[in-house]
Amino acid sequence: MRPILAAAVVIAASSFFVVSPALADQHAPSVTSAKIATPWSSDAPLRAAVDEMAQMLRAVGHDLQQNQRTEAQYDALAEWMLKRLAAFPTTHADRNAAIALSEIKKDLSDGADIMTHATHLPARRLGYMMAVQALNRYGKSFEHPDWTPIPL
Question: Disulfide check for 118: which of 38, 110, 123, 146 has CB 3.0–4.6 Å away?
Answer without folding.
Answer: 123
